Automatic annotation (TrEMBL):
It comes from Streptomyces levis. Keywords: Amino-acid biosynthesis, ATP-binding, Diaminopimelate biosynthesis, Kinase, Lysine biosynthesis, Nucleotide-binding, Transferase. This is Aspartokinase. It catalyses: L-aspartate + ATP = 4-phospho-L-aspartate + ADP. Pathway: Amino-acid biosynthesis; L-lysine biosynthesis via DAP pathway; (S)-tetrahydrodipicolinate from L-aspartate: step 1/4; Amino-acid biosynthesis; L-threonine biosynthesis; L-threonine from L-aspartate: step 1/5; Amino-acid biosynthesis; L-methionine biosynthesis via de novo pathway; L-homoserine from L-aspartate: step 1/3. NCBIfam families: asp_kin_monofn, asp_kinases, PRK06635.1-1, PRK06635.1-2, PRK06635.1-4. Belongs to the aspartokinase family. It comes from the Bacteria. InterPro entries: AceGlu_kinase-like_sf (IPR036393), ACT-like_dom_sf (IPR045865), ACT_Aspartokinase (IPR054352), ACT_dom (IPR002912), AKii-LysC-BS (IPR041740), Asp/Glu/Uridylate_kinase (IPR001048), Asp_kin_monofn (IPR005260), Asp_kinase (IPR001341). Its EC number is 2.7.2.4. PROSITE patterns: ACT (PS51671), ASPARTOKINASE (PS00324).
């Protein structure tokens, strides 16, 4: 007998029908002889709707109370799912993140898991129950307050539980058939990937491929937990994310030269204008941002104008942190010493990811040529060993993603990628 951790995303449990369909799938896993722990997200777009509601009451709601509100979404789906499973004649018990032993730090809205003590879950499955766990939530070790793990955090709950329970497999069920070479909502000719390494998946996830949350992949890599990403709407094999290539039938899956194209329109750009070009300036700007607990992405410093000795520094960050960053910088304006701030939330990022980049000098040139052929202007560039990213106008993103996908020969010549559900929100 094995232990399986399954995670069902919001689009898989969007309505009562979805919950019943998922309940059946979970029961099938149990009937084939496994102990089953199912992690579940809030129904459909519930989390977004709760955030909208909070903003109507207060434009910057307190982190503690926002977490309390958002965790309600996962409580609804976990209880309904347990009821639906019981209706099928099987025993199920639902647990909040705190009850499941998901212990976090105390950073509200984006807490990190620091420990998992799944005693109650273990007992529950040992007694023959199916355990249903609310994803995306935990409890702070210090304050004992309820926390959430950041958007998409149920993926991390699933992997963390799989590690703590020493599960045989962690399955992430979603509304597409696996990880594709680009978001199937944008590129109809995207191809399903059979296997992808933790490293490439980490870069794709960090670059905006929200099919897996990047913290979840980080966690899986640290504890070496293979993940199977697949659709809850079809019976097809999905994508394996693991350290070593898998065998499929008699064919060994090879490491692709280029894994895929990711895009992200959730970031904004802040430009600090008129910064004195002297040591310590960048340090005080980014200390201010770090003290506000804001994670930044790209950073670019312009060449300073010889006549003024002043320069501009631009960086990108999640749009949701934009207001906080501007407020923090304005507050420290005298200490840092700059002229003004510019804020631009109409940007998008396109990234090409693949381990093959390390050894193929032509990739960067081909990437820029594809963008220029599509008439897309580049505003910022950043690279890692296995990724190249550019910032463009947000409007240009879909066209740019398709152009790059074609240019690197990633277009599939068979079936179009299927999106089974979800609103893409
Ligand atoms: P869930 O509700 O199951 O967590 P998400 O909406 O978080 O689902 O993630 C699934 C979505 O991720 C897909 O519907 C798809 O639009 C998007 N996506 C982005 N990039 C990719 C990719 N490379 N492969 C597959 N899906 C992707
Ligand atoms: N419900 C949360 C969200 O929408 C967590 C998740 O779905 O993983 O972000
Ligand atoms: Mg998700």
């Amino acid at each position: 007998m094995g232990l399986v951790v399954q995670k069902y995303g919001g689009s898989s449990v969007a309505d009562a029908e979805g919950i019943k369909r998922v309940a059946k799938r979970i029961v099938e896993a149990k009937q084939s002889g496994n102990q089953v722990v199912a992690v579940v997200s809030a129904m459909g777009d519930t989390t977004d709707e709760l955030i909208d509601l909070a903003e109507q009451v207060s434009p910057m709601p307190a982190g503690r109370e926002l977490d309390m509100l958002l965790t309600a979404g996962e409580r609804i789906s976990m209880a309904l799912l347990a009821m639906a499973i019981k209706k099928l004649g099987h025993e199920a018990q639902s647990f909040t993140g705190s009850q499941a032993g998901v212990i976090t730090d105390s950073v509200h809205n984006k807490a990190r898991i620091i420990d998992v003590t799944p005693g109650r879950i273990k007992t529950s499955v040992d007694e023959g129950n199916i355990a249903i766990v609310a994803g995306f939530q935990g409890v702070s070790q210090d304050t004992k307050d309820i926390t959430t793990l950041g958007r998409g955090g149920s993926d991390t709950t699933a992997v963390a539980l799989a590690a703590a329970l020493d599960a045989d497999v962690c399955e992430i069920y979603t509304d597409v058939d696996g990880v594709f070479t680009a978001d199937p909502r944008v590129v109809k000719k995207a191809r399903k990937i059979d296997w992808i390494s933790f490293e490439d998946m980490l870069e794709l996830a960090a670059s905006g491929s929200k099919v897996l949350l990047h913290r979840c992949v980080e966690y899986a890599r640290r504890y070496n937990i293979p993940i199977h990403v697949r659709s809850s709407f079809s019976g097809l094999q999905g994508t394996w994310v693991s350290s070593e290539p898998i065998n499929q039938g008699d064919k060994q899956v090879e490491q692709a030269l280029i894994s895929g194209v990711a895009h992200d329109t959730s970031e904004a750009k802040v430009t600090v204008v008129g910064v004195p070009d002297k040591p310590g300036e960048a340090a005080s700007i980014f200390r201010t941002i770090a003290d506000a607990e804001i994670n930044i992405d790209m950073v670019v410093q312009n060449v300073s104008a010889a006549s003024t000795g002043l320069t501009d520094i631009s960086f990108t960050l999640p749009k949701t942190e934009g207001r906080k960053a501007i407020d923090a910088l304005e507050k420290n304006k005298a200490g840092i010493g700059f002229d003004s701030l510019r804020y631009d939330d109409q940007i998008g990022k396109i990234s090409l990811v693949g381990a093959g980049m390390k050894t193929n000098p032509g990739v960067t040139a081909d990437f820029f040529t594809a963008l220029s052929d599509a008439g897309v202007n580049i505003e910022l560039i950043s690279t890692s060993e296995i990724r190249i990213s550019v910032v463009t106008r947000a409007d240009d993103v879909p066209e740019a993603v398709r152009a790059v996908h074609s240019a690197f020969g990633l277009d599939s010549d068979s079936d179009e990628a299927v999106v089974y559900g979800g609103t893409g929100r």
